[in-house]
Amino acid sequence: MQNYYTKVILGAVLLGCMGSVAMAADTNLHFSSIRQQGMGGAGVAFTFDEHALYKNPAGLSRAGVDFNLPRLRLEVSSSFVDKVDVFQDVAKSGASKAERILKLKSITPFQGAFDFALSPFISFVRPGFGVGIFSQSNTLIQVNNPVQPEVVLESNTDIGGLVGVAMDAPFIPGVKMGISGGLLGRSVAYDSKTNKNVFVLDANDFLKMVDGGSSVSANLSTATGFGVNVGFLGDISTPVGAGTWGLAFNNIGATLKGTREVLGVDKAFEVSLPFTGTIGLGINTSAPIVGDFLLATDYRFISDETNFFKNLSIGVEKPLMGGMLMLRGGVKDGYITGGFGANLWFFQVHYAVYTEESGRYLGQEANTLQVLELGFLF
Fold first, then answer.
1. CATH number of this structure's domain 2-376
2. pTM (two decimals)
């Protein structure tokens, strides 16, 4: 009977997967674990820690007792790493303006990102319950037009305080159901003269900003609101191994509202976070030579993206040394991801590399990021 209900749920959702439902909305929350980043973004069916609060709250049903203080994560795009010496030359106020602008022209066109996260800032989970605070700041920079360079800057910070519970799903034997929600906020840097969330600077204004003398009308606005996540989790047996399936609906009713000052007048603004639906599998399997490993996949069947590959996530994780070292890989947005995690007694370090595609098609605006996370184990 348990397998019957499982097949009914999965069958109904897979019918929806035959074509993604496109929904126009603002950018989704940037919360993610470095484990998911290394595994191509997959995680709906196997996230059983504090990150289940926003990924799939039903995962709290399998959480252990765990308390986390801030985990510091830094993400830098590979393009920044490759061009760091050029940006250092551009920032040298002792050089002539012509020399600095020439350096700026030499890297055009350029796109890079710099992200900072506390994921979590603090959290506590136990079987069937979790609470946590998460934050992530994101900054994007573009340099366009090699003849007359212009610099485009964009920055925002997401923060969320979430609480969640997981329990037996009503009327569905063997399936767990979870619900989480809380206060969400997004702070956005904007131009108080144009009311736009991007700053477009010519080369002269950019150099003034670097030197601390810019006349850019930068301000910060914050929108807040409440959002709810609902998820389901169950066991599944496949020809290649046993594991779990997951189904999650995120950002239910998540519209954030705030005010900002534009030309001396307060104006209302809002951020509508995209409502998404995701189905996933996490299968414990094995292969010759490789041995035991976790194979996972997620697919967003309700999404603001219509590109199949941008809705698909595939990941693998291989434990070594009794689980002290984890090797990870996957596919996200059609690009290869990878990483590792090491639990060194009371200290942990994680690394991931992945590519985000912000264009409408693969290869249009790809941005590869390298991620490092440090934290303590309790």
1. 2.40.160
2. 0.87
